[in-house]
Write a structure and sequence with these properties.
Radius of gyration: 29 Å
Oligomer: single chain
Largest sheet: none
Shape: elongated
Strand content: under 5%
Number of strands: 0
Length: 386
Amino acid sequence: MWSSGYDTTSTKAIAFEAVVVPGSNPGRPIKRGSMMEKGLKWFFLILFVVMIVFVLMILKPFIATLITSLILSYLFYPVYKKINQKLNKKSLSAFITILLVVMVIAVPIILATPTLIREVHANYVFIKQNTVLPEQCTDNSTVCFLSQRVADFLAQPQVKLYLESTTKSVSNYMANGLSQFLRSLPTLLVNLFVLFFVMFYFFRDAPNLFRRIEAVIPLPRSHYRMIVKRFDETIFSVLFGYILIGLLEGVLSTIIFVILGVKAPILLGLLVALFAILPVIGAPFIWIPLSAVFLIEGWSSGDSLPIIKAVVLIIFGICVLMPIDTILTPKIISNKSKVHPVLILLGLLGGIQLFGFIGILIGPVTLAVFMTFLDIFQKEKRYLLR
């Protein structure tokens, strides 16, 4: 039961009866259950809540950064433990671990960004040069037919108005985003400093921190362990069941795109990885339309090579990517986690919208811990509601 987690005679309890009130007899303790004791309890609780509000106001600009640092520290803590076992120096081990975190996260981004920019620009130029306008058509080919249908659709007044307003909105959004990014550079540097600063001390003092949290949280040990277990399961599910599997599918897709001579293989591989991370949607959202493009290209031009590419890509998607989604991912998740895919999907989408990219981890963890609290409430509602 809930009450079994507490010891009312414990020395850890706040001994209000030992508080000396000004003007009273110091030798006379406050009686248990008296109005004075209840007043002191309420005064302490109100003051405590006010202090929590002020602390949250102070930490509000860094909430996302703090949560990010704690999650990254949790993920890389086993690496820190192995390094510290060899060096036996906490500070040096924490510093080396942070350097490894920077290398694992920042180096791939730095290396891939220039290539992605080149591929986006090259595809823009290719599309612009190979777009077939209706007035350029001299035959009844499939490309000309589709081009005429698209032109008729775009010529409608409502469609033209919508496209103009959308283009203007996108341009304004990109301009505002760039200027906002430049203005936020100092804030970004401060957040990075806070991120690595908190990670450093979390690596060093994690055992003491967890013991302190367990002592402070007014929950029985069984409920506390249930929350920690669900937190660990969700991190495991999202990281290994979705993120790493998504990256694996992205890498494999990039390789097959390079072999098939697909334009912008890294860009398309990145899109495969991003869609593979999302439950239910997955990599077929990319390779199926791409296969259709190859089939249409081969059918309209009479060339068999694009058709062969489409067949190879379909076989790759069915025999390689789909088994990863349907067999490997559920096996990884089911071996350790009981987190429902709906929670993962909603957590991913909502977390990204609220916290940015790191919301991929924050969102599912938050929803999973909330569901754990609902389970605790269901078990203890008779005690809580009486």
